């Protein structure tokens, strides 16, 4: 800031507060709705302040769910989401970091070809080739399984590039010192590269966890058994199902629960998250 | 390029094997299938499959529905990009004036990134619900009868708002980073040259921010075209009367619900070409950034 | 501890560029050898070939009795000190020192003993549990040396280890390295571009230029009888005057030479001097001054005591023994 103009500062604060309010509005309304009973919505408008049924609504959802929608208890769906998100995040990190290690620290025939094969995945988002990919997973018998939920999504060019970038900034002398100290490739990977990439791994984990948790189309397609429903995909089934009129208080409570883990991760690890976000795009 | 490398020949392949296997099975093979099916056509019983060349593509180009979807996608992508980036830039510029409260406001603005598009759709769907939603109630007071289940315009506005809302955090973070990387001395020099805050923004800040703006434009278009499937599915399901049926939604719908494999495959191929073009643009930008 | 022998060692890169050509060198057990030359002369490449970090395309490197051309760096029984120290940033000083021993499955008690000993020698005991980033440049330098010492290797390889330090610390560490090497008696090969560092440290110097050995000898031999015009110009500060013989053709014995070399300190100012120099610039160094000027159209530098008066025109003389004569084309010494 250059000159001190109280009016401009005030304007800036007002803009930001209004912005925060607009951004928060939908979540506030969802939270309010999730604390009321079903009859409170009959009057025609949604209440603006929280009601008394917070504990009742949430505990009912987590334990039994909305049986009429054919979805399992929300607790089960959250566990499924957690398994999927963790598998995707960890899977992507593991296969990307080993790929990047191979590409940066070895010279072998067809190295460039391998690199391009990984690169091309960036250009083939799952939405674009959804029909044939579904077919492959169905043929492999991976429908309705945790493997089917996660494995097809764990190839990642972005994560591979990020680790490649990180490795390229590690000085050659460090590798040489390790070689003279008697470290072979795997020992070097474990003792030097992994510890040096720790913050990058953590930052990437935050981003990928959110990516995995928020998957929608894929779990919607490949889970037909309620045992494998994830919460993000399940919420839509819940909103659709109940006799045409959704049980708003329960749908909104489910929405709150669906947001809670990834939002908590972002706010709790804000610094790492911002770093991860900005660096994966470099 | 590394000066020091390990000499093993088998090990790198073992390290690459998982990534390559998944890439081949779940990316390259399905993509190849899409290309193959895009030049084939099945008869009504699914018994005979014939090679039809580019007929599927020609059919798409002559299909009013597909052209409508294309148009809807363009309107939708541009609206989402402008709305989200405009709003984020305003907030980022405001935060850039702050000294102490930057991190508080950042925390209050980053979390929508973590909300799933499907959930964002549900939230706005609830707000705009014609019978019990808050917004129709407010709009009714000013004399507007909101109903996104029947009005094409209302439906488009709903999906644009829901999609743009989710993207605010991302744009905000990159704009703040972009603003912070502009040297203060440039703005100070302009101030000494007699430019007021508004002039400075348009003469100095905005032009210097253009790499960030361009980058975000590409990212937002990609987001609006490919990542908003869930928003559409959770709110309008492409309706009413195809008004929000964007290309990725149509691929899904024609493939799974309509079971029209040839057409769906041809649509996949067209979408792939679009992604490749957008990725190429993005990479040219990255290269340029490196050259600075 | 061991001797190191290089026989006809050379290196050609895959593209066909020759980096090192035909180097022969016998390093005795316990000797301190300095490879010196301007940047790009191949001295670091040669050191890295001995370390096993670069492949050897011609000839043979032997450490002790063993040909090590195909031996992994870790198995060559050498330790290396890098220019940027290459300390593992995520490990404490203690872990940095122990890492190489741990990889060799040295017993724990033995590792502890050696780390303690090295810490004692280098006076880094108080910092053993710190991370490298919490250390000053000089301390990091000591840790890098400690990592070499604990290994008790057959040879130390130093790759410009002092060039990241400031001038004062560099002089102090130079002395420490010399004393340490004498105390441990370990064969050492040291790479530097700084001729002063080379002169002060070396038992024998190897002067390199463009991938070739120009001269091998003790610092005094190299200083007194540079084998080529290149060495003559490179070793010694201020640098030796190298003048085409025709400019000083009237000096005795220079008739057949291409280039005549005269060290600035070998020129004396006397009224009877037979070299006339027109003074152009004077640099005060305190105890003495450097006077730059022209003679017969060629530049010439002379050192003189700072209390001696300087006129625009100086008459200089030089003893016949102080003249270095070189062939014009090859630069080889001819007298």
From TrEMBL, chain A:
The ABC transmembrane type-1 domain, residue ranges: 78-269
Protein name, UniProt field: sn-glycerol-3-phosphate transport system permease protein UgpE
Keyword Cell membrane included in the entry's annotation: yes
Record's function text: Part of the ABC transporter complex UgpBAEC involved in sn-glycerol-3-phosphate (G3P) import. Probably responsible for the translocation of the substrate across the membrane.
Gene this chain is encoded by: ugpE
PROSITE patterns, per the entry: ABC_TM1
Organism: Paracoccus siganidrum
Primary location recorded for the protein, binned into one broad class: membrane
Family: Belongs to the binding-protein-dependent transport system permease family.
Record bears the keyword Oxidoreductase: no
UniProtKB/TrEMBL annotation, chain B:
Subcellular locations according to the entry: Cell inner membrane; Cell membrane
Any one cellular-component term (Gene Ontology): plasma membrane
Gene3D superfamilies listed in its UniProt record: MetI-like (1.10.3720.10)
Domain ABC transmembrane type-1: 70-282
Transmembrane segments: 70-95, 107-127, 155-177, 208-226, 265-286
Coiled coil region boundaries: none
Chief location bin: membrane
Protein purpose: Part of the ABC transporter complex UgpBAEC involved in sn-glycerol-3-phosphate (G3P) import. Probably responsible for the translocation of the substrate across the membrane.
UniProt family annotation: Belongs to the binding-protein-dependent transport system permease family.
Name under which the protein is recorded: sn-glycerol-3-phosphate transport system permease protein UgpA
Name of the coding gene: ugpA
UniProtKB/TrEMBL annotation, chain C:
Record bears the keyword NADP: no
Molecular function via GO: ABC-type transporter activity; ATP binding; ATP hydrolysis activity
Domain spans labelled ABC transporter: 4-235
Keywords, in A-Z order: ATP-binding, Cell inner membrane, Cell membrane, Membrane, Nucleotide-binding, Sugar transport, Translocase, Transport
Entry similarity comment: Belongs to the ABC transporter superfamily.
Name of a matching Pfam family: TOBE_2
Gene3D superfamilies: 2.40.50.100, P-loop containing nucleotide triphosphate hydrolases
Xref: PROSITE patterns: ABC_TRANSPORTER_1, ABC_TRANSPORTER_2
GO cellular component: ATP-binding cassette (ABC) transporter complex, substrate-binding subunit-containing
Domain of life from the UniProt record: Bacteria
SMART domains for this protein: AAA
NCBIfam families from the UniProt entry: PRK11650.1 (NF008653)
Organism encoding this protein: Paracoccus siganidrum
Single Gene Ontology BP annotation: glycerol-3-phosphate transmembrane transport
Protein name (database record): sn-glycerol-3-phosphate import ATP-binding protein UgpC
Classification via InterPro entries: AAA+_ATPase (IPR003593), ABC_transporter-like_ATP-bd (IPR003439), ABC_transporter-like_CS (IPR017871), ABC_transpr_MalK-like (IPR015855), ABC_transpr_MalK/UgpC-like (IPR047641), Mo/tungstate-bd_C_term_dom (IPR008995), P-loop_NTPase (IPR027417), Transp-assoc_OB_typ2 (IPR013611)
PANTHER family to which the protein is assigned, alphabetical: MALTODEXTRIN IMPORT ATP-BINDING PROTEIN MSMX, SN-GLYCEROL-3-PHOSPHATE IMPORT ATP-BINDING PROTEIN UGPC
